[in-house]
Specification:
This protein is mainly β. About 10% of the residues lie in helices and about 40% in strands.
């Protein structure tokens, strides 16, 4: 399944972008990618973030080139927190709050007008995300820092802290 976000000038991810999501892939097949977020149009260049066949995280400018690929990987059948930033020259990928790669890349996106984004599906055949996605966040106006991704991971990955500030259970709200 996938969700089409539709086109909005405020959602275009090509000059700057920050993205994060909890991902839980089901399986990996060598040579097969599973898109977390991708474009839906033809002929346009757009950001795609995906899990590769070896479970690394890959960011690419669809139709042009890979921007960066994580050094670490995400396990099948388990939740991992994935973050990505692009400031026009540097591609960063974070896994579970830790920076996995930082690469300087020349060039820029050339996204066409009307490009819609899809969660859980890329443009290519067989790029559907096989697994679960949760807490998906995207911004094209704020580049998140390494400390922000670490704080987000720690805030959302501490089930023993239920009842502490920032955490609650439904019984506490009654």
């Amino acid at each position: 399944q996938m969700v089409t976000l539709g086109y909005s000038g405020s959602l275009v991810l090509y000059q700057t972008a920050s993205f994060s999501a909890w991902v839980n892939p089901n399986s990996a097949t060598a040579g097969n990618t599973r898109s977390i977020i991708g474009g839906s149009g033809t002929g346009d260049q757009y950001l795609e973030l995906r899990v590769t066949g070896t479970n690394t995280i890959n960011a690419l400018e669809q139709g042009v080139a890979s921007l960066c690929t994580s050094a670490g990987s995400v396990p099948n059948g388990s939740w991992s927190y994935v973050g990505f930033t692009w400031d026009g020259t540097t591609c960063n990928i974070y896994i579970n709050g830790a920076q996995s790669v930082s690469t300087t890349v020349s060039g820029s996106f050339n996204a066409g007008a009307g490009e819609a984004y899809q969660l859980g599906k890329g443009y290519g055949t067989g790029e559907n995300f096989d697994g679960l996605l949760d807490e998906v966040h995207e911004s094209n106006s704020t580049i998140r820092s390494a400390s922000w991704y670490l704080a987000e991971y720690n805030n959302q990955n501490a089930p023993g802290n239920v009842g502490s500030p920032g955490f609650w259970t439904w019984s506490l709200l009654q």
